[in-house]
Design goal:
Blueprint (H helix, E strand, L loop, with lengths): L14 E9 L2 H11 L2 E5 L2 E5 L6 E7 L4 E9 L1 H13 L3 E2 L11 E4 L5 E6 L36 E9 L2 H10 L4 E6 L3 E5 L9 E5 L4 E8 L3 H13 L5 E6 L6 E5 L3
Parallel strand pairs: 1-4, 5-8, 9-12
Antiparallel strand pairs: 1-5, 2-3, 3-4, 6-7, 7-8, 9-13, 10-11, 11-12, 14-15
Length: 263
């Protein structure tokens, strides 16, 4: 979809290009992400993570004293970049230098919690429309569920969304809407809120949950259907990653999930 199609009133970003996490142990991170079903490549002191649906790099992991968000790189169309920059200045956004692991493309700002955000021209990685969920049905004289030995490894197709902890959910929503052009999808009081990108997006691209302090909550990865959610949970449990939550279905967003706690 081009920016000329369904041009919104406020310019905004359309996609998460990638996120960068600072982690204390890159070897543990590599093992976890590969077990999860992503392809992980080492590039110097950085790990880069890829899903199965495209050659796009979705995540970068760099060495840090503690696990924390390094930055979000957010993509926009070329026609929107300068308008978003002007919008950020008008809204009083705090401009900043690039993260040490980032690039000089576009411009960098800090959100109200001090998270670094890069706004740059880049490909649209969010879907233009809802992708149907695949549901498997057993045929005549077929077993409804096959044994584990019949299944291959689950490989997520792409990054779907990320969620951050924040002390002030509504302040974060206002910033991401007024500065970056995201739109509110759903919220529950001031406890949790979900925002989506311009020009077609999942129900949420970046979400916020209330907490005493800021922090990284989770990244969510898209698979074909509910069966893959369950098989992915089993895949992680058999590898020793048993701490998590699910399998279940959210009310807001209506998506099926299974959360796995990383190292």
């Amino acid at each position: 979809m081009s920016p000329a199609a369904a041009k919104p009133s406020r310019p905004g970003v359309h996609s998460i290009d990638h996120y960068t996490l600072e982690v204390p142990d890159l070897a543990l991170a590599k093992q976890f992400y590969e077990t999860f079903g992503l392809r992980v490549e080492s590039k110097g002191d950085t790990l880069e993570a890829f899903a199965s649906g495209s050659p796009h790099r979705w995540a970068r992991l760099v060495k840090g004293a503690h696990k924390r968000l390094g930055y979000f790189a957010l993509n926009c169309y070329a026609d929107d970049l300068e308008a978003i920059r002007a919008q950020a200045k008008e809204q009083g956004a705090r401009f900043t230098d690039p993260h040490p692991a980032g690039s000089n493309e576009g411009f960098w700002v800090l959100d109200p919690d001090g998270n670094r955000l890069q706004v740059r021209v880049g490909p649209k990685t969010m879907p233009d429309e809802k992708v149907p969920m695949r549901v498997r049905h057993a045929g005549p004289n077929e077993r409804g569920v096959l044994g584990r030995s019949h299944y291959g490894k689950v490989h997520p197709r792409r990054l779907s969304h990320c969620l951050l902890f924040t002390p002030d959910v509504l302040k974060m929503v206002a910033f991401y809407e007024n500065v970056l052009g995201l739109k509110l999808s759903d919220r529950s009081q001031d406890l949790i809120a979900f925002t989506h990108g311009r020009y077609g997006s999942d129900h949420h691209m970046i979400a916020f949950a209330k907490s005493e302090a800021k922090g990284w909550h989770h990244s969510s990865w898209d698979v074909e259907g509910l069966e893959e959610v369950g098989r992915g949970a089993d895949q992680m449990a058999r590898a020793g990653y048993t701490r998590g939550w699910g399998t279940g279905r959210h009310v807001l967003g209506s998506n099926y999930f299974h959360y796995i706690q990383d190292p």
